[in-house]
Amino acid sequence: MTCTLPLTGDDPADQLLEDDPLALLIGMLLDQQVPMEKAFHSPYDLRERLGGRLDCVEIAAVDPAKLVEIFSERPALHRFPGSMAARTQAMCQALVDDFDGRAEQVWAGAADGPDLLARLTSLPGFGTQKAQIFTALLAKRLGVTPAGWELAAGAYAEPGHRSIADIDGPDAFAAVRAYKRDMKAKAKAKSES
């Protein structure tokens, strides 16, 4: 069986991303300042530390200090376990408040691409770029293609290896990292000129 989301290098963690929309959203939320594989594996580790289930109602309601402990347990779920525990909890609370506690409602209920982008950017920790990347990931990897998704996703809708949305196997990580390095170098050169 071919995995649609081969984002971690670990079959059970990848399967969780496919099976659990909350895991996929948490992985995307954590995808900053850590390797992509680590960010997307952390929902699996979080689920294990929470007793074998991810539930946004439970995560939203847990004592914040306890969630920080869970994120900080070695190996930590993120380079910044305290702030990312708080951000995860805030995102889960937004899912409870605005999407009936169901992560998939963020995209299943979207009228079109711009609405999807607006729904994603309403979540704590999802700025425009992260929301565009997630929009592209939904379309390219999971077939969630509301009208206008390409415009909403911007450059991330284009072919190539620009982001996590373009990871289709182990070799794609190097291509995405090379693209990111190139973009950073161009941005640095532009700021210095």
Q: What are the SSEs and their pairings?
A:
Layout: H1 11-19, H2 21-30, H3 36-49, H4 56-61, H5 64-72, H6 81-98, H7 105-108, H8 113-121, H9 128-142, H10 149-153, H11 172-192
Helix pairs in contact: 1-2, 1-3, 2-3, 5-6, 8-9
Global morphology: globular
Helix % is 55-70%
CATH fold-level label: Endonuclease III, domain 1
- Discrete helix count: 11
Number of domains: 1
Q: Which CATH first-tier class would you pick?
A: Mainly Alpha
Strand content: under 5%
* Strand-pairing-aware structural class: mainly alpha
Alpha-carbon distance between the termini?
Answer: 50 Å
Helices and strands, in order, run as HHHHHHHHHHH
Which stretches are poorly predicted, pLDDT < 50 over at least 5 residues?
none
Characterize this entry briefly.
This protein is an all-alpha fold. The chain contains 11 helices and no strands.
